[in-house]
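Hey, weird one. I pasted the Fumarate reductase/succinate dehydrogenase flavoprotein subunit sequence into the form twice and got a warning about non-standard characters only the second time. First submission, copied straight from the form history:
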Amino acid sequence: MRLDARIPDGELSEKWDRYKQHARLVNPANRKKLDIIVVGTGLAGAACAASMAEQGYNVKTFCFQDSPRRAHSVAAQGGVNAAKNYKNDGDSVYRMFYDTIKGGDFRSREANVYRLAACSASLIDQAVAQGVPFAREYGGYLNNRSFGGVQVSRTFYARGQTGQQLLLGAYQALMRQESLGRVKSFTRHEMLDLVVVNGKAKGIIVRNLTTGAIERHAAHAVVLATGGYGKIYYLSTLAMGCNSSAIWRAHKKGAFMAGVSWIQFHPTCLPQLGEHQSKLTLMSESLRNDGRIWVPRTAGDQRPPHTIAEEERDYYLERRYPAFGNLSPRDISSRAAKERIDAGFGVGAMKNAVYLDFAKAIKEQGLGKIREKYGNLFTMYEKINGISAYEQPMLISPAAHFTMGGLWVDYGLMTTIPGLFALGEANFSDHGANRLGANSLLQACVDGYFIAPYTLPDYLAGELQAEPIDTNHEAFDKAEQAVKQQIAHFLNSKGTLSVDHFHKALGKILYDKCGLSRNSEGLKEALLAIQELRQSFAHDLKLTGDDKTNSELEKAGRVADYLELGELMCHDALAREESCGAHFREEYQTADGEAIRNDQDYCYVSAWEWMGKDLPQQLHKEPLLFNDVELTVRSYK
C-alpha cells in the first residue's frame, strides 16, 4: 500500500489555506443528518466534539472517566506555545516551525509542523475568549516564559495549571453543546473495538464500565482522541487509567501505527521511591526556566546539598550545552541525567535523581516572585516529599512521559482507514522523534478546534449518499463477538499471577532495553522476553471478579494490548539503525555521546501494518521531504 499524506501543493505558508479553500463542505441542512463518534474527551476530543456540534452535526462522545474533566490533559501543567512574539525577542511562525522541526530531529512533516505554528496564535485568542486565566504582566498583557529547545519566550501559562484551565474551557464548550442536544455524552464507557464496513470506519463497540453491558454505536465517522501509550512502561507520568487500547484495536482493523518507538522521557519528574510504586509524579518543565540542574562532582557524594560548595557542583547541562543550558530539549536533558546517574553521581535515597536548585533564582528575584510563578508546583512537591523546595533543591529524575508515535494520519488527520481520524497524542503527526515542551497542549487544541472542523466535513461530504449503517450489520456482530470472546477468556483464566505482575514485568523490559537508550542486542533480548511474557499471560493470568464492574478486567484488556504494542516498539527501534531524538541507539553516537542521525537511509516515517496474530508486521515508509529547511546536525551547544 502506498502511503499518501495528501499534502496540498504550493508554498509551505500557503498549504493550509489552499486546503481550506478546496475542501468540500456540507450545507447546514445536511449536517444534522450526519453522525460523528468522538472517543476521548480531553483537549483534542472535547474541542473537536464541541466544534463539530456547533456546526450542527450529531456527536456522541465516549470516555472511561466519570467526567470529561478527568481527562489526562490536566497533567500538562507548564504552558502552551504560540508564535505571538509578545516579548519582541525575534519569534515568528517560521522560527516556531523551525524550532519544532529541529526539536523533532527532522523526523516530522514540514507541512504539518508549519500548520501547527501558524494556527498557534489563534488558539491563544480562542482560549482567552473562553476565559482561560493566562498569567499577565503588570500592565495587563499576557505573559510568556521559555521552554526547552528554544531561545525565545513563546509559552503562555496559567501558573502550573495550564492544561487544567484549557480543559475547563473546552469542557464548558462541550457542555454547552450537550445542553443544546447536539452532543450525547457517554461517560464510564470504554471502546473495545472499531467497526469497519466496506473498508470505512462506521462505529465502535464499547463496554459500560458501570454495568458491564456491551453496546454498539454507529456513525458516519469516528474520531480517536485517546492520548498516548507512555503507561506501557508501568512507571510513568501518566494516570493509571491511560492506555493504548483504542488506537491498538483500530490498528488491528487496518490503521497503520507510525513512529511507535519514539517515546519521550520527561527530565523533570519526581524519582521512584520504592519497588511498590505505581506512578511517577510530573513536575512542570517550566521549573527549568529558573531552576539549575546539578549533581555533585564526586561520585557517591551524599552530603546535604546546601553543604556542597559551588565549585564541588557539576551543572552538567550548562557545561555540555552552553547555548541552551537547563532549557535543553527533553530527550537530551533526560539522557544527560541518566548518564550522570548511571555513572554514580545520582543523589537521593535510591541514588536515582539529580538536583533542581532554585537558590540563585530566589536570591535574584525574591521569594515572592518564584512563589507567584510556581507556587502550586512547590506546594505539590512539599505535600509529596515533606520538603520545602524554597529551602533546598528538588530531587528530579527522567520518567516515561509522551509518545510521539501513534496512528499514522495524512494531512487531514485521517488514518489509513477512511472515516477514522486520530487527533492529539493519538496520532504521530507533528513532533517527529522528540516533542518540544508546551507543544502537546498546542497540538491537541489545534487538532480539535482548527483542523478537524475542516477535514472532517471534507470527508463527510462524500458520505451524504452513503447507505445508512444499522448496528445490526454483520460487521457489528463480528466485532461484538470478538470482544465477548476476549472477556470470557480473561474471566476463565485460572493462573496465579495478577495483571499488574505482567504490566510491571513488561515495563521493566522496555525501560531497560527500549527506554532512554537502545542497542541491537538489548532489543533482540527484549523481543524474546516479551514473547515469553505473552505466553505466560495467556496461561498464568489470574483474574478476580465478574463481567460487571471490574477494574481488573479492564486492566487485563489493556495489558494484552500493551504486550503486542511493546513487541512492535522493539521491532521499530531495531529497524531504525540511527540515533534521532528520543530514539538513541548506542551504536550510533559520537565520541562525546551525541546522536548520529542517518538521513540517507532513514529520513522517513516508519508506518506498520498489522498482518494478523503472530505474523510479522509489514513496514511501510513515508519519505520525509525537506524543501524549506536544511537538514543539519542537531546541536544545542
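That's the output from the first submission. The warning seems to come from a hidden character in my clipboard, not from the data itself. The longest strand covers residues 394-403.
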